[in-house]
Amino acid sequence: MTAGVSCGYGRSGATGLDVREARRARGTQVTQRVLIAADKFKGSLTAVQVAERVMAGLRQVVPDVEVEALPVADGGDGTVAAAVAAGFERREVRVAGPLGDEVTAAFALRGDTAVVEMAEASGLQRLPAGVFAPLTASTYGSGELLRAALDAGARTIVFGVGGSATTDGGAGMLSALGARFLDADGEPVAPGGGGLAALDSADLSGLDARLDAVELVLASDVDNPLTGPTGAPAVYGPQKGASPDDVATLDAALAHFAKVLEKSVGSQAAEHAASPGAGAAGGIGYGALLIGARFRPGIEVMLDVLGFAPALERADLVITGEGSLDEQTLHGKAPAGVAAAARAADKEVVAVCGRLALPPEALGRAGIRRVYPLTEIEPDVAKCIADAGPLLERSAARIAADFLR
Fold first, then answer.
1. φ, ψ for residue 263, nearest 5 deg
2. Closest C-alpha among 197, 231, 241 to residue 99
3. With contact defined as beta carbons under 8 Å apart, do 50 and 41 qualify?
4. 52-81 confidence digits (pLDDT tens)
5. Would you list the DSSP string of 18-51?
């Protein structure tokens, strides 16, 4: 029995084994050039480690296979690491973490293009284990990261947002860039989304002038507005420890934030609040839109930045994946973006994952021919997470046996 879950798309709906036999019958060369373009297996392996394990598994079966690794990300945590793996220089800087304590965060730079990942400064991973701060966590450090990219000479900044510990509408980030948010006594409001309830006035006149000369791209895999039933607090607040009461408080505070901003920046404050991406990463997308960012799906931006198109042209088979292939995958996650680009180029795509929660027909429509979930080898999810590396090598060996020999 052939390994993996066959998704049956394309003209023939053939499996990898069928495709290989058909090529042999025609006397054509069997696929030997592979592009690994997978995201991280969250909680188990980074995208770089995924690529390393897949490469090792392929070469166990086909030692001379040509493999190109291009770890990918969709704008969330792991975005800087993917850029560094693609040849960007890693730059480190000390910034404020979500609770105000100083942390070492990184951005990536190549020429005058910078990749800044808000999770590096303001992500959940920056909180102590088991600690959440839904009302008080701030994005101030993310603004400091953007400022560091400007200091480094960046003229284009890809601002990847996701995995945040914050729901402050980007107020902290804007403060770090020169904005002032004051209460009725003329004092700065408290950090975090909760503090915005006391906001009386907003002054953006002191924003860093260099922002006017920079192309700022908001890279995100979500298109939520700032507030409301599909806004940042309602949809993502619970992931950051927000109780139902906290969600209501944050939603009202962010709506008030946007209302106060109308006095200083005009009707565009309300327009941006309703725009796709405004609710990304606790509303930092809103703050980015206010300073002129252009919203684009994160995986599309990152594929451009990482040089995916020329790598794809060199490949015959593309291997993508992430920890869980589920309904969210189909809505802007890295594997869906990779598969869409590969399918448009008439390249065959297979995927690896920890767990699979999508039916074959959905994967087939997405352009993924076959999936190799780790749970197919080891049904115990806890063991899959603990032993993801060796299991992934075994899955990759199965891919090699199916598609490369």
1. -70, -30
2. 241
3. yes
4. 999 999 999 999 999 999 999 998 889 999
5. HHHHHHHHHTPPPP-EEEE----BTTTB-HHHHH
Query: What is the location of CATH 3.90.1510.10 in the chain?
Result: 79-299
**Residue 90: how many other CB atoms lie within 10 Å:** 12
Structure tokens of 6? 């066959």
Question: Is the full-model pTM beyond 0.70?
Answer: yes
Distance CA 159, CA 40 (A): 19
DSSP string, 179-214: -EEE-TTSPBPPSSTGGGGG--EEE-TTS-GGGGGS
Query: DSSP state, 311?
Result: H
Q: Which CATH number does the domain 79-299 belong to among 3.30.70.100, 3.40.228.10, 3.40.640.10, 3.90.1510.10?
A: 3.90.1510.10
Residue range 5-70+312-403 forms a domain whose CATH class is alpha beta
Look at strands 317-325 and 348-356 and give their pairing.
parallel
- Calculate the average pLDDT of the chain: 92
Task: Please name which of 353, 351, 352, 345 lies closest in space to residue 311, comparing C-alpha atoms.
Answer: 345
Helices (H) and strands (E) in the chain, counts: 16, 14
Rounded Cα gap, residues 320 and 318, in angstroms? 6
Listed in order, the ranges of the chain carrying CATH 3.40.50.10350 are: 5-70+312-403
Which of 267, 286, 71 minimizes the C-alpha distance to 172? 286
φ, ψ for residue 149, nearest 5 deg:
-65, -40
* Structural contact between residues 132 and 241, judged by C-beta atoms closer than 8 angstroms: yes
